[in-house]
Write a structure and sequence with these properties.
about 200 residues, alpha/beta, Rossmann fold, five-stranded mixed sheet, two-stranded parallel sheet, 9 strands
């Protein structure tokens, strides 16, 4: 949901966009589609050709299957390697509230306890992703997201520059607008921030 919204908003703003997908899709006019795997170096290199910034919206899909999964940290490390080779500086990654430091008490200690088998591996992978970003030399930002909804954009976003959850949900469109805003304005470099409606 997050990646589709980010693509739609980028096109609305007049940006040229390139997306990496596992299976061929019908994309808006002017969008370059690369079919491949985010864990494959050649696919990532091809995707990053002629871009100015990277938006990474990786996840395991829904609540996942409850098993440990290294997709997000492994792919993030590979993206960073290829960004360095291409001399790219700007990366915005979709994170999650519920990671340590997000202050999301309800998610960390109530929801995670109820859904521990499925939620803990997801949060663990995002913790590893944030550590990889902190050790990198790019201008990164993690946007810690609460629950994403497909409701109409509200155009009102609460932001926590400290990365502490300011609410329980955000529309996918509002989240995408925020990620594109901070790329265009070069805000929150080297920081994990949280947003909500």
């Amino acid at each position: 949901m997050g990646g589709k919204a980010a693509l739609a908003k980028a096109v609305q703003r007049g940006h040229q966009a390139t997306i990496l997908v596992r299976k061929p899709i019908e994309a808006p006019a002017g969008v370059r589609v690369v079919v491949g795997d985010v864990r494959d170096r050649a696919s990532v290199r091809h995707t990053l050709a002629d871009v100015d910034a990277v938006v990474q919206c990786l996840g395991v899909g829904g609540m996942g299957d409850g098993r440990p999964n290294s997709l997000v940290p492994d792919a993030t490390a590979l993206i960073l390697d290829e960004m360095k080779a291409a001399n790219l500086r700007r990366l915005v990654c979709m994170g999650n509230v519920g990671v340590p430091g997000s202050g999301a008490y309800l998610i960390r200690f109530v929801v995670a306890a109820l859904l521990a088998r499925k939620l803990r591996p997801i949060l663990s992978s995002k913790v590893k992703m944030e550590a990889i970003l902190r050790a990198s030399e790019v201008d990164w930002t993690v946007v810690r997201m609460p629950v994403l909804t497909e409701k109409p954009d509200r155009k009102r976003i609460r932001i926590s520059p400290e990365g502490r959850a300011p609410g329980i949900s955000i529309t996918a469109g509002d989240a995408a607008d925020f990620m594109l805003d901070i790329i265009e304005k070069r805000q929150f470099l080297g920081a994990a921030v949280s947003v909500a409606n």
